[in-house]
Amino acid sequence: MSEQRGQISGHAPAGFSWGDLVASLVEEHGSLTAVAWKLIEHASGDDVASIERALRRLRGRGQLDGGVWGQRVLRVFGPPASIEARLRWMGLYHSPFNDLPLSLCLDQLRLWDRPPVSASRARVWISLGFASCALRERRFDDAAQHADQTRSAGGPDAAQLELGLIDGYLASRASGDVTAALERVESLLATATLSPEDAACFRARLVDQRAYQLNRASDHAAALALFSALPDSDVHPFASYRRDAGRAYGLHRLGRTAEALALATRAIDHAGDGGYTRLRAMGLLLVAKINGEADAISRASAIAERLDDAELRERVARARA
Known about the structure:
Distance between the termini: 50 Å
Radius of gyration: 23 Å
Strand content: under 5%
Helix content: over 70%
Number of strands: 0
Number of helices: 18
Oligomer: single chain
Number of domains: 3
Shape: elongated
């Protein structure tokens, strides 16, 4: 209640507000009147003066419900591109957001999960971010619930690919139909509109999940072939890490230790270059698997504790066992 009174009395709320949204529209279109004229095309029966008054009222709503005019503004304009890009960064697993301490990730997601963001199409990225955090905590039922919220919201190709890979991961943990989930990802990836960096990351993640199933079935040569088919060019550090770590594991299982160790070390370098602390820990555990280096496990364990990451802790425990 105190937060709401503070917003109404003019105290700036933490995070993105209706006032910030209106200010960004004024900056983009030149004036409040220009924004009103844009809206009048979608609000028959209203005049410019009444729409301007509505926008001034909306500007003072802080992070409360924006009502009918909030819905109209979001429907016509959507969130600013810079804000949607930031939310997208929080929702994509292959961004360094997921390499921050888990508590900080959750704080950021909760901060942004308020109007106007929570009432906009960009809400899909918040749900995906919560799903990724739940996976890091090994709360698979919660991850599935957040994924279902994303499913009903739709969203751009990247969001649908993210959802498909989450579905595949959850299916692999619950003896579900992993193949069907990954086939849907493959089909969408073939037609999706993506940047070269995102395309490389999604492709590497898809290969990683398929190779995981092959490795579980002890078909290490087939898994290695999937990773070996990925391009050798370094388009993005995350994709490069997945490629080289996957190749390293396959070579290790096939007894080619020296080659495996060289690729695992290179994978760790890719993780460091991209700011991927969690991937660096996974790379260290891979090195320990290849050469039995206890110090690598201790370093990975320290990273897991600093990030408060249950999934990494589980990997460390398996390595020590």
